[in-house]
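Chain A, query sequence.
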Amino acid sequence: MKSFLPLVARRGLLLALLALPLPFACGCTPALWDKETFAHHYRPGSPANLRLSYSTERQDILVQYDESKDGDTTTRPRCYWLDPNTLRVNRNQKPHFVSAKAATGLAPIPVGEGAPGPRGPGLKRLYARVTHEADFFTLYSGTEQLDPYKLPQYTGSSQRVKQVLLTPFAVAVDATIVGAVMAYWAAPGIFADLSR
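Chain A, predicted structure.
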């Protein structure tokens, strides 16, 4: 009996050491910590109610639109400066939003589905065209087309509090599954050692 216990203990310790990383490699725990878990997807509302304003001080355009989350029918107003956020928006990253108060005192840029009527020289010639329910707009200066721009579509950060609170339960479930598999594979060896 003396030689049996160290053999069973060594075999159990070896199986435990081999199985230790399994809960973190497969099962509930990694799925819980996936960046998409509990994440929300944001996109322009339908309609987006796009409004553009020009800042002579910044020499930039303030973009205002209505945003929806995960296809909700409710929207919330969003504002961001076009120039410093264009690359982020093109990469489907969240732009750096600013308060709607930033639009105070700015020159509005006409936005419509077609070209506006003749305008005088200067900034008043700047306008934007959108298509119905499109997620982008194109800037024009007079008859010259400038650039098309996407409206933000991005995945919000996952909700860390939920992940932290659910982690002990996920690890317990994974450990139970790994323990059951270990017991299933170890049982024939233990019974064989007992029958000697």
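The two ends are 10 Å apart (CA to CA). Helices lie at 4-19, 22-25, 28-32, 82-90, 160-194.
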